[in-house]
Amino acid sequence: MRSKFTWIMALFMVLTFNLSFAQEKTVTGTVSDDAGQPLPGVSILVRGTNKSTTTDFDGNYSISVSVGQVLEFSFVGFTSQSATITAASGVINIKLEEGQVIGVIVKDAYRTVSERKATFATTTISAEAFENRGNASIIQSMQGQIAGLSIGTGSGQPGADSAIILRGVGTINGNFEPLFIVDGVPVDEDGFRSINPNDYASITTLKDAAATSIYGNRGSNGVIVLTTKRGSYNQDLKFRYTSQFGYNELQPVNIDLMTSRELLQFQKRSGQGLGSTLSDAEIDVLSRQANTNWSDIFFRKGTTKLHDLSMSVGSANTNNFTSFSYFEQDGIFINTNLKRFTLRNNFTGRSQDQKFEYSLNFNANFSRQSGLDGAGTNSIFFAPFRAALQGLPYLSPYDANGNITRDGGIAPGNTDAITADNAPYVLLNSSLMNTDIEDEFKLITGLNAKYTFMKNVTAGMQLGLDYSQFKALERIHPESILGPFQANGTNTTQFGGLQQESTSRDFRFNSLFTLNYNNTFADAHTIDLTGYVEYIKNHFDSFGFVQRGLDPRLVGTGAAFIDGETVEGTLRPYIPTVSSGKAEEGLFSYFANFDYDYKGKYGFNATVRRDNSFRFIDENKWATFYSLGGRWNIDEESFMEKLPFVDQLKLRASFGTTGNQRINNGSYSALNFTRNLYTQSGGYNGTPGTVPGQIANPDLRWEVTEQTNVGLDFGLFGNRLSGTVDVYRKFTRDLFQSTPISAVNATTDIDTNTGALENKGVELFLKYVIYDKNGWNISVDANTAYNQNRMRDLPDSYNGIIQPTGSATTLEGYPLNTFYVVRYAGVNPSNGNALFYTRDGGLTETIRDEDRVNTGKSSLPVWTGGFNTRVSYKGFEFSTQWSYVADIYRNNLDYADLEETNLVNDGTNRAVSAGTAWQNPGDITSVPRVGNQYNSVDYINSTDRYLEDASFLRLRNVLLGYNFDKKILEKLPFSGVRLYIQAENLVTFTSYRGWDAESNFRTTDRGQYPTPKIYTLGAVVNF
Amino acid sequence: MNKLLKLTFLALLISAASCEDATDIIQESELGENNAFRNVDDLRSGLIGVYGSYNPDGGSSTVLFNDLFTDNIKKGLNNFGQGSDTFAFNMRPNNTFAGGIWGSRYATINFANRVLRAWDRIFPTLTNPDDIDKANEIKGQLLAFRALCHFELLQYYSPNYNRSSQGVIIMNFVPEITQVFPRNTVGEVFDFINDDLDDAIALIGDFSSLPDYRNDDTSQDIFYLGADAMRFLRARVFLYEGRYAEAETVAENLIADYPLAAAGAYFDMFNADTPSSELVFSLSRRQDDGGAAGLYYTNSVDRNGSPLYELSNQLLNLFAANDIRREVILLPEGATGSLIVGTDSPNNILLIGKYPGSADGELINDFKMFRSSELYLIKAECEARQGKFSEAETSIQTLRNVRLITGTAPTPSYASNLTLALVDILLERRKELAFEGHRYLDLKRLGAETNTGILRSNVDCASFDSSNCALLQGDYRFTLPIPTSELAPNPGITQNPNY
Question: Which of A511, A687, A745 sits opposite B48 (nearest CB)?
Answer without folding.
Answer: A687
